[in-house]
Structures are given as structure tokens and as C-alpha cells.
Amino acid sequence: MPDSPDRFRIPSLRDSVTPEEWQARVDLAACYRLIDLYGMSDMAANHISVRVPGEDNAFLINAYGMLYEEITASSLVKIDVKGNILAKPEFPGELGYGVNRAGFVIHGAIHEASHEIACVIHTHTWPGMAVSSLECGLLPMNQTSMRFAKIGYHDYEGVVLDLEMQDRLVRDLGDNNALILRNHGLLTVGKTVGEAFNAMHRLELSCRAQLAAQATGQKLVEVPQAVVDATWNNYQPGTRRPYGVMEWPGLLRKLDRMDPSYRD
């Protein structure tokens, strides 16, 4: 017999955490649902994290084994940047879901290095993996991809399990809000969950557009570098409202209409 949906219904933690942490949990659970909704999830693999407001070096991440479509605010695991579990729900059944080691290695490194970053998203989509494997990387071939004209790159070193990789990940991300992990996938960061999600959505769209154009075999139209640079600058902080902030409430309303259980 298949598992009952109640098997994954975790008692709410709302009364035992601060209002700020609860809101962070709701936003992060929503992000997992949206990543799945927009076709960017990889079953139980990959991870999204958010810093716990008011707690140094603590962040929330998914329980390894749950599908993105199942994530709720109460089911998230609180860990520190060294991978120590600070708070974990009692999951029913024998699996006792923990935390993906690669999740804490990647996310812990970034959260420890920059307290301004609230959210980190990592994906293994087919467009992201394909572009990450191209020597040319992401091309500034349209307005959307020009937003990432100065994106960082991190060379593949194997599955991200070794703590020695952390310094190089942080170095290669630099001051960018996006990183292409060579032969691996995509990563974005943001000061809010909405900003990180918006960056990932647009980065994914850029990869899809590039692969579609390259698949035609036709010569791509090159945009003058000065125009690329000016367009990139228009997307940078300080030029306008941070991307993703305005859309986030609408995305939450979208989820509420479809399935509000992420708030549980």
C-alpha cells in the first residue's frame, strides 16, 4: 500500500519559533514548491536554504528525502554552517530524514561568508547542466541573459562533499548573485527568498533560450560589448527595485490558490 499523505504531515512548529523564523519557513517552503512548479526540481535532490533571522550562522534547509512538492514550513530542518542539526522534526516511519551533506557544504560556505545573503538556491535542471558543460558557458545573447553577463564559474571537483571546496565556491561566487557550477548545475543567491528565486528563474530561462538558439545551427547575432555592459548595469542593485521583491507576494497568492499546505 502506498504511504498515506498523513505520513508526511509534520506537527506545526509555529508556536515554538519566533514570528520572524516562521515567516522565513513559510517563504522557504513556498520557494521549494515554486521551484517544482516551474520545472526546476530534481525529485529529492538539490537544496534551497534561508538564513534564520536573528540567529548567527543558522539556516533552514530541506529534509533529505522529501520531494519539493511536499515541503512545508514545519518540515524544514534548522542547521548551523558546520552542519550541526539545531532543530529537526520527528519524521514518521523508518527513514528519519536528515540533511544532504552537499547541502550544508555549499550553503554553509555561502551563509558563513556573507551575512547579507539570506537565500541560496541550487538546481540540476537539464538546461542548467547543459550550459554548465559548454566551454562557452552562458552567452549574453539576449536581454535576459545579459543580466548574467558577469556570472561566476566554479570548475567541477566532484560531488561537493569536501569542506576544502568551500573557500573556492565562495571565491568563485564573488559579489555575483549567480554562479554556474561547471559540469554540474546552477546556483543563485539573494537578500530575500524572492530575489534568489527571481534570479534562478531568469537564469534558467537564459539557459533554455541559449540551447534553443544553438540547436538551430544558425549564427547568433552578437550584441556590442558596450551595450551588453550597459544592460548588465541596469540589472544591478541600486538601479531600481531589487528583482523578485515585487513579484513574491503574487507568487505566494498563486500557491495559495493551488495548494496552501506549504504554510503548515
UniProtKB/TrEMBL annotation:
<protein>
    <submittedName>
        <fullName>Class II aldolase/adducin family protein</fullName>
    </submittedName>
</protein>
<feature type="domain" description="Class II aldolase/adducin N-terminal">
    <location>
        <begin position="26"/>
        <end position="211"/>
    </location>
</feature>
<dbReference type="InterPro" id="IPR001303">
    <property type="entry name" value="Aldolase_II/adducin_N"/>
</dbReference>
<dbReference type="Pfam" id="PF00596">
    <property type="entry name" value="Aldolase_II"/>
</dbReference>
<dbReference type="InterPro" id="IPR051017">
    <property type="entry name" value="Aldolase-II_Adducin_sf"/>
</dbReference>
<comment type="similarity">
    <text>Belongs to the aldolase class II family.</text>
</comment>
<dbReference type="InterPro" id="IPR036409">
    <property type="entry name" value="Aldolase_II/adducin_N_sf"/>
</dbReference>
